[in-house]
Amino acid sequence: MWERVEHYSRLNGVSGDESAVREAIIEEVKAYCQYEVDALGNLICFKKGMVTPDKKLMLCAHMDEVGFIVTHITDGGMLKFTTVGGIDSRVVLGRAVNLYRTGTIGVIGTKAIHQQTEQERETVVKVEDMFIDIGASSREEAMNVVRPGDCAVFCTDYEEFGDGLLKGKALDDRLGCAVLVELIRSKLKFDMYFVFTTQEEVGLRGAKAAAYSVNPDFAVVVETTTAADLSGVSEQKQVCALGKGAVVGFMDRATIYDRELYALAYKLAVEKKITAQTKTMVAGGNDAGAIHTSRGGVRTIAVSVPSRYLHSGVCTVKKEDVKAVLKLVYELTETIL
């Protein structure tokens, strides 16, 4: 599974431009399920199990990652840009990025510190005051390799380090995609749908369309979620922590989760000896926000991998937590229906 996680992390797929990720997933699942791609680019798979249930279950993970999009090219060849998805400007400045349509590498910069006013030095630089430097000296030179609308992602190395930790870009939510692929390629008790969604990071757009098409009775969203288990952060505000297992939340900013499914997840975790935790704060959101209100409503739960430094170039997770998420999601698929 870890080779798959690394492969997916290295793929580039900013919201609305997920084709490379989708094609890689199709290559791995096409022999195990029926599939189709809808108008928004969602990959919708149907996996035949040993039993056809009366109710319909959908598992969901999103393919897209946060990134950047070029909005303008200056006379001097610098690229003005904005973010795609929620990226804190404090993790952007000075980072190398890959404008992956052409493989052009650039560096995000801003006005030199000795040219800044005293007020500018004391405030966080806004994205609108930054640029991507690709080494071009004119707009014409830059236009040979880049055009407005091109997307960029963080340049970062996928690496394992410390006590079973790994870091990389786009682990939100390529980890969820890897978990779903693992399940599709396994023997399952019930028929079910697996949906790999687009545009989650810009408003849950793919999930809204996919949930309407599939029309499930139940949904399990497989995600990553913010872990703030860092020095100086009180336990109450850490949200969740690495090494404490799968995260099953009762509420976030987009969803109040089905209470029976929430209880079931913890019951299964205890019975099957799967490490699990809940969030200590109401924070974040995911595709469940669009799914649970689709049509006449969908009973929904989310199971997430805790991740430090979410929406940066170095999402950091613990491998044991990923294993716990895989085990718990599998047990839910065996039990919900």
Automatic annotation (TrEMBL):
Report whether Metal-binding shows up as a keyword of the record: yes
What is annotated as the active site? 200 (proton acceptor)
Query: Which Gene3D superfamilies does the entry link to?
Result: Peptidase M42, domain 2, Zn peptidases
Q: Which GO terms describe its biological process?
A: proteolysis
**Manner of cofactor binding, per the entry note:** Binds 2 divalent metal cations per subunit.
Q: Which GO terms describe its molecular function?
A: aminopeptidase activity; metal ion binding
Q: Which UniProt keywords apply?
A: Aminopeptidase, Hydrolase, Metal-binding, Protease
Where on this chain does Zn(2+) 2 bind? 172, 201, 311
**UniProt record similarity statement:** Belongs to the peptidase M42 family.
The protein's name? M42 family metallopeptidase
